[in-house]
Amino acid sequence: MGGLCEQCLKTGLVKPGEIVHHKVHLTPDNINDPEVSLSWNNLELLCRDCHAKAHGSLKRYKVDEMGRVIIK
Ligand SMILES: [Zn+2]
Ligand SMILES: [Zn+2]
């Protein structure tokens, strides 16, 4: 889709979005629920920095240097 980072836009910054973030994270329990896995309401386009921040508050998830989520 090639949009802009939604979090940065809120603070007046214009940055290209790089990563589609699921607001509700996918788990084995909800991955078959289309409301979670496919609904745009659950997706947010973020830049790498904002994506790392979004996950920084969740101790269960780590983000590598490419902004990808590592689930241990
Ligand atoms: Zn951002
Ligand atoms: Zn994410």
Tell me what the structure shows.
The chain is an alpha+beta fold. It has one domain (6-71). The chain has helices spanning 6-10, 34-37, 48-56; strands at residues 19-22, 43-46, 61-63, 69-71. It has a two-stranded antiparallel sheet. A two-stranded antiparallel ribbon has the order 3-4. Strand 3 (61-63) and strand 4 form a beta hairpin. The N and C termini lie far apart (29 Å). Bound molecules: zinc ion (2 copies). Residues 21-22, 51, 54-55, 69 line the site of one zinc ion. One zinc ion binds at residues 5, 7-8, 15, 46-47, 49-50.
Q: Keywords, please?
A:
single chain, 72 residues, alpha+beta, two-stranded antiparallel sheet, 3 helices, 4 strands, binds zinc ion
Q: Briefly, what is this?
A:
The chain has helices at residues 6-10, 34-37, 48-56; strands spanning 19-22, 43-46, 61-63, 69-71. With 72 residues, it is an alpha+beta fold.
Question: Would you spell out the secondary-structure blueprint of this structure?
Answer:
Layout: H1 6-10, E1 19-22, H2 34-37, E2 43-46, H3 48-56, E3 61-63, E4 69-71
Antiparallel strand pairs: 1-2, 3-4
The chain binds zinc ion (2 copies).
Residues 5, 7-8, 15, 46-47, 49-50 line the site of one zinc ion.
